[in-house]
Amino acid sequence: MDVYLKKIIIKNFRRFGEEGVEVVFNKGVNAIIGENNCGKSALIDAIRIAFSTVPYKKDIFFNKSDFHINNKGEVAQSAQLDLHLEDVPQYLIEIWDPEHPTQGEFHIKFYKTKTPNGVEKVKSTAWGGKSEGNPLSPDTFEAMEFAFLGALRDAESEMKPSRSSKLANLLSSVTNNEESRNDLVHILADAQGNILQKPQIQKAKEIINSNLLAIEQDILRQEIDIGLVEPRFESIAASLRAWLKPRWFYISKDDPLYTTVLKKCEELLCLECVQQDANGLHIDIGRFLSKIDKKDQQLKNQLIQLVNYSFELYQNGLGYNNLLFMSTVLGDMAIEKSGICYNLFLIEEPEAHLHPQLQELIHNFFESRHKASDTIQVIYTSHSPTLVSRIGVESINLLYEKNRKIQCLPLAKTAMDDTDKIYLKKYLDVTKSQLFFAKGILFVEGICEALLLPEMARLLERPLDKYAVEIVNINGVAFKPFAKLLTTAESSSCFTKAAIITDDDRCTDKDDKDTYISKDLDYDSDITDVIEKLKKGKPSDRFKNIEELCEGTEIELQNATKTLEYAISLHDNNILLILQAIESAFPRVGKALSDKVNSLSDITEKAICIWLFIQARNDSKGKVAQALCDLIQKQCDELKKGNTVDKPFEVPEYIKKAIYCVTEA
């Protein structure tokens, strides 16, 4: 059985209060996401503390400052970590649950005590299973290993030669029997013997003994001998170092190798291994060496010498050093070791110092390492929409602040069904994934709303960036999966301020002859019948389904009567601006529309003409929205300067309500 951490419950630890927070994990790769200061690092540290509480070698300590402080300034007197594991083998008897044979759990409680002289200290008690009092021993935790890569990390130092370096750990795992270790030790002992016979060593010993004799004369007549540190496997492991070998090496025309390499590339038909310029060539040595055979051993040796030119770790970029660290740790974890049934790799912000394409590759690497070894579980924190878009929603825990408390929403526990998850897996791209890091979310149907809402919010003096509000353009009307993503199956409570802005799409049912308005109508059609149908029309079934979906949740639903363009045009101040925008996109026919609208006196008739015009040219309505956006932006800029604006744009009431909803304190 391959153990993995299924759940952790944290109470009174740092930002997590008395009510506690429950975080659920899956086998394999898991992500913890959320805005800054929502407890991601605290969660990782809680796991680290839990797995290093009992062993003699602690990775991190629980301090007095770790106790939660509530809104009243009261410091908790105790804290508790409850860890639940799945696929637990029976031999981990201290945590194994006989009532549920695949499960296991252990708990750690921290509390304050005072010494006789009044000094306050933190003590802890740990137990396995459900009942407090069942002792835990290092044996249990020695079967479960973990590694940690922090946000403020120094991968270079972690890879430097030392007994505890990641390279030393990897070598220990690779040479996992006494015979293979002794083989390395014997090689080192032979090399040391040869070194000790060198005249330089003998000369150094001679100088010291000569000086000793001069000091001691015939009184002591002491002598020393010189040797190297006793050859041991641990010394070999502690001496390992790594460096980066550049892929391409330069050979100038003056170098005798230039002609030899070029000739050999032509002979082997591998000219793709070289790139020439006026002064020499670059050679992909690794690729080239794989093509030449033993008869060219001399050339091979010369090129290997060239490969010895390398960059030290401190000369590498931070991103590549992090990749080296992660590759070494996961390489060590993938090796099957006697007595180890679980490997946990905790990483804070694996995206640090990596560009988006490398972020995608590192996530794929995590997934492949887990598939290669089921004993590996990766849990990382992230602010990266790129990583969030790559990992399935079922593997994400969202930490967020609500009602002054930090809470967790495991996305696997939301109201989504399988169809919703499949949809979101396809459509949660890098842009839409930014919603997880927002304070508020505005879901909109298309590009027009996405362009106009930020400028409308500026007019209302509620700029969306100031309030950390994200606009999510659904590019259609499929709001259901996103709405379910924000709610839990049990409580239907949203994790953040959210609003859906949509059209009610009345008068679109072809079967209802009394209210259906044909899409073939244009601005110059007879609109007498249209006015009556709009008055009698009712919101579409599609809108009613969204309305029902939002009932009982904290998702605000705000709708336009018919469409956005119609709602905007129902305000006198907006008519001039939207006609200007239309004329900039459609100079000739836009002028004809303006003439028609200006000839009308009723605001509803004007709004209908503008709406029908844009509906008939639906494919180009984005141009109109962009032009209108520019005009509103100019008004915003003038108002910001303190200037008066003639006929300021009127934000439709339903959009006002949605903006206020997501920008409230």
TL;DR?
The chain is an alpha/beta fold. The strands form four sheets. The protein has a six-stranded mixed sheet with strand order 7-11-12-3-13-14, sandwiched between helices. It has a five-stranded antiparallel sheet with strand order 2-1-4-5-6, with helices on one face. It has a four-stranded parallel sheet with strand order 16-15-17-18, with helices on both faces.
Topology diagram in text:
Blueprint: E1 4-11, E2 21-24, E3 29-33, H1 40-51, E4 78-86, E5 103-114, E6 120-128, H2 138-142, E7 144-149, H3 155-159, H4 166-174, H5 178-196, H6 199-216, H7 233-239, E8 248-252, H8 256-268, E9 274-277, E10 280-284, H9 285-289, H10 297-307, H11 318-333, E11 342-348, H12 356-372, E12 376-382, H13 385-390, E13 396-402, E14 405-410, H14 418-427, E15 440-444, H15 447-459, E16 469-473, H16 480-485, E17 497-503, H17 528-536, H18 541-550, E18 555-560, H19 564-569, H20 572-585, H21 587-598, H22 603-616, H23 621-640, H24 653-663
Features:
single chain, six-stranded mixed beta sheet, alpha/beta, 665 residues, Rossmann fold, five-stranded antiparallel beta sheet, 4 domains, 40% helix
How would you portray this structure in words?
The protein has 665 residues and is an alpha/beta fold. The chain has 4 domains: 4-160 and 318-397, 3-Layer(aba) Sandwich (Rossmann fold), CATH 3.40.50; 172-239, no CATH class; 248-310, no CATH class; 429-663, no CATH class. The chain contains 24 helices and 18 strands. The strands form 4 sheets. The protein has a 6-stranded mixed sheet, with helices on both faces. It holds the Pfam family AAA_15. Residues 436-505 form the OLD protein-like TOPRIM domain. InterPro entries: AAA_GajA/Old/RecF-like (IPR041685), Bact_Antivir_Def_Nuclease (IPR051396), P-loop_NTPase (IPR027417), TOPRIM_OLD (IPR034139). GO terms for molecular function: endonuclease activity.
